[in-house]
Design goal:
Elements (H helix, E strand, L loop, with lengths): L5 E4 L6 H16 L6 E5 L4 E4 L12 H6 L3 E4 L6 E4 L3 E7 L9 H17 L5 E2 L7 E3 L2 E11 L2 E9 L23 H4 L6 H16 L11
């Protein structure tokens, strides 16, 4: 199976529910062979998402108070616990037919971590895995969360990298259900921090390099 990839960037904030529907539609067309593997790169408006294994105790504010603060709440079908998404956070949703690589959920998770580690080490950050946890860490603080779904070996959901989000919003949850572990962003680690356009470009390069996908001509936003 050909290792091709269409990268689609969004230049405006994408509603979480609308983006989930778009992912699922692309999953179906990739599975039928009617669309290429796809990498969506975007930012979301403020939203807290609850994964399949979420603990209600990890949501620290009631829905009404979150709404008052302009933060949506959404139950979703990815793996993992509770996460926050918002402006200033890079969201990457790869829609990949894993038959072209390796049909292994664990391998895919570790591969996304490897892409992020390569990206961050390119910024001279000591990015690493933390034993027993999913995601990527710098000096013991989590800088990127990963939560994926796989249906018929087609991937969806993906990664959230904190570039320059409102870090105050992470106080409203127990991020990924992990107690006593800080969350950090590139804006707090680097001076100056790279802007979102650069991070998206660098992430795509790291992603293509790891998954051994040649560069394609850029395609327009749908």
């Amino acid at each position: 199976m050909k290792r091709s990839l269409q990268t689609i960037r969004f230049n405006h904030l994408m509603d979480y529910a609308a983006m989930l529907a778009l992912q699922k539609d692309r999953c179906a067309t990739v599975e039928r062979g009617e669309a290429p593997n796809t990498l969506f790169l975007l930012e979301h408006p403020p939203v807290i998402t609850l994964g399949r294994r979420s603990d209600p105790a990890h949501l620290l504010l009631p829905r009404e108070e979150l709404a008052r603060r302009g933060i949506a709440l959404f139950e979703t079908d990815r793996g993992g616990d509770v996460t926050y998404h918002g402006p200033g956070q890079l969201i990457a949703y790869p829609i990949l037919a894993l038959a072209a690589w390796k049909q292994s959920y664990r391998w895919y998770l570790r591969s996304l971590e490897a892409v992020l580690i390569a990206l961050l080490r390119g910024y001279d950050l000591p990015a690493e895995r933390l034993e027993g946890f999913t995601g990527v860490w710098v000096n013991g603080a989590k800088v990127a969360a990963i939560g994926v779904g796989v249906h018929n070996w087609i991937t969806f959901h993906g990664i959230a990298l904190n570039v320059m989000p409102d870090m105050e919003h992470f106080r409203f949850i127990v991020p990924c259900g992990i107690q006593n572990k800080p969350v950090v962003s590139l804006a707090t680690l680097l001076t100056p921090a790279p802007d979102m356009h650069r991070v998206m470009t660098d992430f795509e390069k790291a992603f293509r390099a790891y998954f051994e996908i040649p560069d394609d001509a850029p395609l327009p936003e749908p």
